[in-house]
Amino acid sequence: MSEGGAPDALLAEATDGSRRALGRLITIAESGGPSADALDRAMVGRPGPGWIVGIVGAPGVGKSTLTGRLAAGAAGGRPAEGAPRVAVIAVDPSSPLTGGAILGDRIRMQGLGDPRDVFVRSMAHRGAAGGLAGAVPIAVRVLGAVGVEVVIVETVGVGQIELEIIHVADTVIAALSAGWGDAIQASKAGLLEVADLLVVNKADRHGAADAVRDLEQMLDAGTATALGPDETWRPPVLTTVATAGTGVAELWTAATAHRAWLIATDRLARRRDDRRRHEIGRRAIDILAREVDQRVAALGPTAAAATPEEAARRVVRQVRAGGD
Questions:
Q1: Cα separations in angstroms, 159 against 174, 188, 216, 251
Q2: Domains in the chain, please, with CATH?
Q3: What is the pLDDT of residues 114-139, one digit of tens each?
Q4: Is a pLDDT exceeding 70 seen at residue 39?
Q5: Are 172 and 194 in contact (CB under 8 A)?
């Protein structure tokens, strides 16, 4: 094992099937800073995952169990040599003491089968907006670079602010549960705006049929976006009982149909181009914010003679000029 953390060596070991090396790479991605930058440079030109699936939904809808079942089905009993075919990034709440992922080893994730077939990594939320951890994009690139074909990203479950998933996933599955709430709540949460598939989990409970009916009515009212002749994707509404595995195969079949549609309409490439630009823009803003903070901290006594607006404009001019 390359404990020194040389990215190329770790990438080679992870590609050959070293879980320890793959875990180390994800840790580097989470740590940020120069080491993460070096890792990102080492992955330039390497392939990304063939498919990235996002799973969103409020706490309590059974996302983790559903994620485990989908991951096991996607692995499909593949012989466990080399890198695993499927990986799960599970974004968890952060410990207020350590900042680490509270749910740790995802013990509530059911149905994974042979652990060699699926790589599971919990990632602490750490207050990032949109239900994701900030390191998710680079972690996804790491998994693709070592040969993982399917990456499933489960968001933290923050309800109404999980829209950031559209900047990571190719296909977004929004999970609800029977009795979760009426169609108005679904609309408020933005689920119908980001979801490519809608699934009512815990469908063996009272109210599942009502939830399906409400969602279908909202779609009938024009929520689905018309993209032109032969290019309209209407999110299907499916039902599952993830604890029993019921309906999971049908959900995965619908998800693969969405992927086929993305490819046939050239939207997969366009989505990924949009995501790349979004990440570049977000990182540029982060860099500028750090530079602004440094220059504001360095303001001398003369700043007291200026208005906050005047001082702010001076800082902007300094950042633009790249000098003092």
A1: 11, 9, 20, 21
A2: 7-253 (3.40.50.300), 277-321 (no CATH)
A3: 556 789 998 875 444 444 456 889 99
A4: yes
A5: yes
